[in-house]
């Protein structure tokens, strides 16, 4: 009986272990099943991380992203098709619908052949732009693999980038060199705050169509770090969409290849580790934050009784405490969330516009979460306020918390008493002088005897 | 160790002096940079020869409507040749921003690029330090590509013209806001208040002194208490009790505690007051008042 239970728990732990925070059904859209063996290490890595892989050809009749109006898969990995488009069941609309229903997508491109217009128009939906003729390849005469591309210089060797901004968490950094053969570059629209580059081309890189001889200056649309090799979109619903410029980088061959930069040493690639980081982030194994308990109450000494927690009403100028518990998912478990060095988790106390916007400081931490908190005085303005935590950052899922409370003004008996106001002492003294004078007058009137001398004088 | 340290710079020198010894590498010759103010002739304005190995020490300044022109002849090894890539690369070391302007290259390697402030990204217009202008020449095959700084470029803006800014919406932390509270009500200095309190308090002694001067006294108190002790004591007591009730109402009682107490004390004062005043009338009728 006991070992039976142990076995059951073991089995349960095994299934729970190493799973994305948002489901394990992964659909891989592959052109032909023959292509499948080229990426076998990637598939086994994904399966080892707990994904159920299904392979479909874009032309297949059975292929559908939805079943009974719901997502049939949690994640989607699209490899570039050899044919013109992605077929009738993977139109840009279907894929955007999939994204809108919280599905995550990795879209791989290839510079080997020109990208289909269906993919290009899908990317336009999210403000990612391909080169005009859709068949550009990134070339860099300074960072290429001298072993495999000594002549054509189209296998880029790049360091994994540290974040561009100091206040963004690093999910894709690390030691080692990435080999990226025949990259189809993307440029990002500058208006969208949902887009973020994961890997940019070096400053000396440029893109050109290999079918043409020498690019004329007018043909060069973007150069250097404006060319993105891997870019990401995180939608408002936190669904993730990653574009990888070089599908070949995921091949077994490049997972285990050794490369040599000009004037460099021969080193093994870190493509396998990068693929893990990239799919892990896209399929929500990393960068997922979750809010636990939220508490607010009046600032008091010692423990707060349960009935005093999260009151519906506060008074103006109340000293108030706010606490929020945040966890972050890291591959297979929830860990305490840490705010990046130059970033801040901010609390807003708002009525139409924020009256307070304060950084929440880490107060304590549990095994799976960090409790952030702050203390502030409610503004001297009554009305319906809300505690808001609106934490939206590149590469992290969105936190949007809003808790409404009433802030009332002083009740009649909550103002300072008149004797506490020094300016009122004169009036208080006057009042008691009148009372004292009245009592003295009553006594004198009741018991005073007429003075004899004076009466005589007046007579 | 010492020997190595002594020979290392020499080795480097040799290596630098013999570029052709290794695989051939890209470079350029006959390079000039010119800044031509608007309206000036072809040879008007600033002109300087550029060197492959060393950047200009002084920044080249590009003002409002000027045209910056860089001309050079690209070379592979020592023969003029057309490369696949010939860029003028501007790089801001502070922000890490980079942008390339491709040279128009002829078959014989003669290349030129022209640039005005209008073509620069507006982020470059607001940098304080001179921008690093580099030349990048590279092509396919085994020849080493060339990438080196050739001159610093400083962007001169007319001080009266505002620098255009570009603020893209990005998720990030927002400035902290602390609510500014209205000023609390203030009282005058306590010393002034106390002076006026003393003035008000002085009214009582002044009143008493005036009454005493006019002959006020309490000589009838024994007489009154002898003829009607209870009414007088109770009447005076009820008056004091009234003031006590008011004091309690002021400090702690509410209206519902005050009114019944005031009603009881009022009734007592009415009854005892009419007796006490009857006694006072008796004194008046007796001619004592």
Automatic annotation (TrEMBL), chain A:
<keyword id="KW-1133">Transmembrane helix</keyword>
<keyword id="KW-0472">Membrane</keyword>
<feature type="domain" description="OST48 N-terminal">
    <location>
        <begin position="25"/>
        <end position="282"/>
    </location>
</feature>
<feature type="signal peptide">
    <location>
        <begin position="1"/>
        <end position="18"/>
    </location>
</feature>
<protein>
    <recommendedName>
        <fullName>Dolichyl-diphosphooligosaccharide--protein glycosyltransferase subunit WBP1</fullName>
    </recommendedName>
</protein>
<comment type="subunit">
    <text>Component of the oligosaccharyltransferase (OST) complex.</text>
</comment>
<dbReference type="InterPro" id="IPR055459">
    <property type="entry name" value="OST48_MD"/>
</dbReference>
<keyword id="KW-0732">Signal</keyword>
<dbReference type="GO" id="GO:0018279">
    <property type="term" value="P:protein N-linked glycosylation via asparagine"/>
</dbReference>
<dbReference type="Pfam" id="PF23358">
    <property type="entry name" value="OST48_MD"/>
</dbReference>
<dbReference type="InterPro" id="IPR005013">
    <property type="entry name" value="DDOST_48_kDa_subunit"/>
</dbReference>
<comment type="similarity">
    <text>Belongs to the DDOST 48 kDa subunit family.</text>
</comment>
<feature type="transmembrane region" description="Helical">
    <location>
        <begin position="425"/>
        <end position="447"/>
    </location>
</feature>
<dbReference type="Pfam" id="PF03345">
    <property type="entry name" value="OST48_N"/>
</dbReference>
<comment type="pathway">
    <text>Protein modification; protein glycosylation.</text>
</comment>
<comment type="function">
    <text>Subunit of the oligosaccharyl transferase (OST) complex that catalyzes the initial transfer of a defined glycan (Glc(3)Man(9)GlcNAc(2) in eukaryotes) from the lipid carrier dolichol-pyrophosphate to an asparagine residue within an Asn-X-Ser/Thr consensus motif in nascent polypeptide chains, the first step in protein N-glycosylation. N-glycosylation occurs cotranslationally and the complex associates with the Sec61 complex at the channel-forming translocon complex that mediates protein translocation across the endoplasmic reticulum (ER).</text>
</comment>
<feature type="domain" description="OST48 middle">
    <location>
        <begin position="307"/>
        <end position="448"/>
    </location>
</feature>
<dbReference type="InterPro" id="IPR055457">
    <property type="entry name" value="OST48_N"/>
</dbReference>
<keyword id="KW-0256">Endoplasmic reticulum</keyword>
<keyword id="KW-0812">Transmembrane</keyword>
<dbReference type="GO" id="GO:0008250">
    <property type="term" value="C:oligosaccharyltransferase complex"/>
</dbReference>
UniProtKB/TrEMBL annotation, chain B:
<dbReference type="Pfam" id="PF25147">
    <property type="entry name" value="Ribophorin_II_C"/>
</dbReference>
<feature type="transmembrane region" description="Helical">
    <location>
        <begin position="190"/>
        <end position="214"/>
    </location>
</feature>
<keyword id="KW-0256">Endoplasmic reticulum</keyword>
<feature type="domain" description="Ribophorin II C-terminal">
    <location>
        <begin position="181"/>
        <end position="284"/>
    </location>
</feature>
<protein>
    <recommendedName>
        <fullName>Ribophorin II C-terminal domain-containing protein</fullName>
    </recommendedName>
</protein>
<keyword id="KW-1133">Transmembrane helix</keyword>
<feature type="transmembrane region" description="Helical">
    <location>
        <begin position="234"/>
        <end position="253"/>
    </location>
</feature>
<feature type="signal peptide">
    <location>
        <begin position="1"/>
        <end position="23"/>
    </location>
</feature>
<dbReference type="InterPro" id="IPR008814">
    <property type="entry name" value="Swp1"/>
</dbReference>
<dbReference type="GO" id="GO:0006487">
    <property type="term" value="P:protein N-linked glycosylation"/>
</dbReference>
<keyword id="KW-0812">Transmembrane</keyword>
<dbReference type="InterPro" id="IPR056790">
    <property type="entry name" value="Ribophorin_II_C"/>
</dbReference>
<keyword id="KW-0472">Membrane</keyword>
<dbReference type="GO" id="GO:0008250">
    <property type="term" value="C:oligosaccharyltransferase complex"/>
</dbReference>
<keyword id="KW-0732">Signal</keyword>
